[in-house]
Amino acid sequence: MAEFAAKYGPWALITGASEGTGAEFARQLAAKGLNLILIARREGPLDALAEEIGKAHTVKVITATVDLTKKDAATRIAEIAAPFEVGLMIANAGADTNGSLFLDRDIADWEALVAMNVSTTMKLVHHFGQGMRARGRGGMILVGSGACYGGLNGLGVYCASKGFVMNLAEGLWAEFRHYGIDVLNLILGRTDTPAHRKILEEGGQPIPSDMASPVDVARIGLEQLPHGPIYNWGSPNDQPGFAPQSPDARRARIVMIEEMSTAYAAKK
Ligand SMILES: NC(=O)c1ccc[n+]([C@@H]2O[C@H](COP(=O)([O-])OP(=O)(O)OC[C@H]3O[C@@H](n4cnc5c(N)ncnc54)[C@H](OP(=O)(O)O)[C@@H]3O)[C@@H](O)[C@H]2O)c1
User: Fold this and answer.
1) Which CATH superfamily is domain 2-266 in?
2) How far apart are the CA of 193 and the centre of ligand 1, in A?
3) Which of 117, 189, 114 has the alpha carbon at shortest distance from 147?
4) Helix and strand numbers, DSSP H then E, in the chain
5) Residue 117 Cα, ligand 1 centroid: separation in angstroms?
6) Which of 16, 118, 138, 267 has the fewest CB atoms inside 10 Å of its own CB, making it the most exposed?
7) Is residue 19 within 6 Å of ligand 1 at its C-beta?
8) How far apart, in whole angstroms, are the C-alpha atoms of residue 67 and residue 75?
9) Does ligand 1 have an atom closer than 6 angstroms to the CB of 145?
């Protein structure tokens, strides 16, 4: 525990920290002795989590409401975090809550998703990377999705944004390891978060029984942090994962996943 805090402390900043995987990262980091800066849009859930953590641990917890889709989100977060030494940055928020085909949604909704997953994520990595490089230590977890491995029906912008995150993480892992900074793209499959349940319910889809638990995701994410650049949820690091290379294999993947989702929705 002391080793973890010495490498990644004394403060951790988590986006999308009010529930699900973000909240679990917060609980588990508090147990490891890290102080926390928790970011989300809703004040109530953030304050409730801060109170819960405050009762269980002696760490300091700061909360701030920031909308990550806004242009100035990263600047605001940098200002909030300025007095603190952030040794771990977890860019957790990033689901596609549009749940829609591309043309059925206003372009502004897709721009918001790109702003959160691409621009704000990149700016946060750039900002917090400076302090970590100066200190010669630190870590970044960019929470990703298996959607990063190629475009999928109804998920084009989401897949593209998560592909950006994976490529960014791989490139920066190569650079940042020379500064003592660990970078991990934690590539998730279906996970039992309130946000994901809401998307399934809104789409009229059944709740799968085999979703990953946020507790396991946070635990394994923190364990895997020194072993970047990517971790495929549920797969050992020496397995190739779901990343077909040839055009034929990529086309087959798109069609197969579309057929799987259609068959799954029809079972309801
Ligand atoms: N759940 C899954 O099945 C699944 C599968 C693959 C990958 N992932 C990845 O796992 C991560 C977490 O996913 P999730 O299902 O928990 O949904 P999520 O919407 O990415 O995360 C929920 C958290 O993010 C906050 N949040 C959402 N939009 C925000 C915004 N615009 N600005 C600030 N905070 C925002 C929410 O609080 P507020 O509402 O208060 O802002 C909440 O704390 C994402 O990166 C997602 O892509 C999830």
Assistant:
1) NAD(P)-binding Rossmann-like Domain (3.40.50.720)
2) 8
3) 189
4) 10, 7
5) 10
6) 267
7) yes
8) 12
9) yes
Asked if residue 191 lies in contact with residue 88, where contact means CB atoms within 8 angstroms, the answer is: no
Q: Name the closest-CA residue to atom 34, ligand 1.
A: 40
User: Considering the chain, what is the average pLDDT of its residues?
Assistant: 95
Question: From atom 19 of ligand 1, which residue's Cα is the shortest distance away?
Answer: 95
67 lines ligand 1 (CB under 6 A): yes
Q: How many whole angstroms separate alpha carbon 168 and alpha carbon 224?
A: 18
> Closest ligand 1 atom, CA of 192?
1
pTM over 0.90? The answer is: yes
Burial 205-229 (b: 16+ CB within 10 A, else e): eeeeeebbebeebbeebbebbeebb
Q: Are 220 and 189 in contact (CB under 8 A)?
A: no
| pLDDT for 258 beyond 70 | yes
Q: Within a 10 A sphere around the Cβ of 262, how many other Cβ atoms?
A: 10
| Distance of CA 25 from the midpoint of ligand 1 (Å) | 13
- To test the ligand 1 pocket, which listed residue (193, 215, 242) has its Cβ within 8 A of the most ligand atoms? 193
Model pLDDT for residues 121-154, shown as the tens digit of each residue: 999 999 999 999 999 999 999 999 999 999 999 9
DSSP conformation letters of 47-85: HHHHHHHHHH-S--EEEEE--TTSTTHHHHHHHHHTTS-
Residue 267 in this model has a pLDDT that exceeds 80: no
The DSSP element (H or E) to which 2 belongs, if any, is helix 2-8
Distance between CA atoms of residues 250 and 53, nearest Å: 44
Whether the predicted pLDDT of 223 surpasses 80: yes
Q: 184: which strand partners? A: 141
